[in-house]
Amino acid sequence: MPPDAAPAPPEPVPAPSAATGTARVLVASNRGPVAFADGPDGELLLRRGAGGLVSGLGQAAADAPPDADRLVWVCAALGDADRRAASRAPDGRLDRAGFDTGRAAVRILDIDQEIFDRAYNAVANRVLWFVQHLLYAPASQPVFGARFRQDWAAYQAYNAMFAEALAQEAAPGACVLVQDYHLMLVPGQLRRMRPDLRIAHFSHTPWAPPDYFRILPDDVQAQLLHGLLGADRLGFLTDAWADAFERCAEALPGVAVHDRQVRVLAQADGAQADGVEADGGRLVRIGVHPLGVDVGELRDRAAQADVAGRAAELAALAGGRRLIVRVDRTELSKNIVRGLLAYRELLRAQPRWRGQVMHLVCAYPSRHNLPEYREYTQAVRRLAAEINDEFAEDDWCPLHLEVTDDYPRSIAALSLAEVLVVNPVRDGMNLVAKEGAALSRRDAVLVLSREAGAYAEMGGAALVVNPFDVQATAAALHTALIMPAAERRRRAAELAAVAGRLPPRIWFTDQLAALAAAP
């Protein structure tokens, strides 16, 4: 058999581990709640970690009781400064080295750089992310050959390191909440090590339908599904993503799906699954938790001086013109290029808006270590320049693009928007849609992709678009700009009410309570 056809080796079975830890609640995620940078004198500077997941869980962790051992957060070192901090801490536990990590004790795993790159970049971000967001062009991509098999072995090892750390930190019967597509094997690995634990996994991405999920090699599909089914509880952002997972899971032998429950009777190799009872199997419950935003905290942040300063700068830049805003990462699934094409179509089809509007695009650099993302960012820059070249006048710049990491600027932009564009190809939730609704001071009209998770809750008050239809999106922008004030107010009030429906603290504690109450 040629090397490219060789199947992935079966996932190694971790040895059972004794309960030695003291943590009653544990969180595991690739990115942690804190990160380190080099100070001017070589000292380590601790700062809050970036990313929506960290923001959400970080708020929840802040509410934990002052006993640090009650909540332990296990994460990976993402840079050299993180690794130096981990090396100074016993077992990577930052609190034991004197670092102030707040209410959550943090354990940083210093993972071999090659294993991390293969697991995080090659598998998680280049394969699993692409599958779950339907980003592949199957005529040419993907190709799963010998190199992928090496990458997959690294993903297995990466997940096993998290499982081992969690097994060491967890007290008997502790609750463990594993986060996202980077750690899909951890629940099964951890159950084999510590069958006494209550384990949950939450998917912050969409879930691919079965026909698309089958792009993955057969053995990889099975390992991912059985890895997740090692949990007691699986969480998703919308019913649509939970339904898609169930349809994938029910194709496995030894698995039965009914009424948001998966009964696991056998493993991928046909053997009895760990934890299966003689009277009918182990039950995995599925919950849907549509994460919202903390409206009060967001508005407090918007009232601070740095945000007010950015808002004044942006208002001056707009010069009294109406602002169409988008705030996104330069991520392929966010669909920025088609959004810009729709704005160009608006200016071509509706000349009345020339000189009357400005499109403000606040973009965050994303995954620039992957060539696809570098190329996409350049495509965004090129198209923005083309639009300005075509329409700009001496006293009017039709589009202002900033590709920088500037959170105060983003909050200011959302507060000033009259139209907010959220048109992803596919998105697990899209918190920007909810942040914009919470922060709007101008009754912003939301132009929302029907493929965003937020559509399930916000579609009734938004202008809903097919993210691939540039002409229809341009028409929606026009409709937003001419919408009567009373209708804008009504829609904005509905959107704001949805945005704060399940803030991060409640989102987290609801899942924790459901996990703790599971039989």
UniProtKB/TrEMBL annotation:
Gene3D superfamilies referenced in this protein's UniProt entry, alphabetically: Glycogen Phosphorylase B
Coiled coil start-end: none
SUPFAM superfamilies: UDP-Glycosyltransferase/glycogen phosphorylase
InterPro entries: Glyco_trans_20
CDD domains reported for this sequence: GT20_TPS
Superkingdom, taxonomy of origin: Bacteria
PANTHER family named in the record: BCDNA.GH08860, TREHALOSE-6-PHOSPHATE SYNTHASE
Family statement drawn from the similarity comment of this UniProt entry: Belongs to the glycosyltransferase 20 family.
Record protein name field: Trehalose-6-phosphate synthase
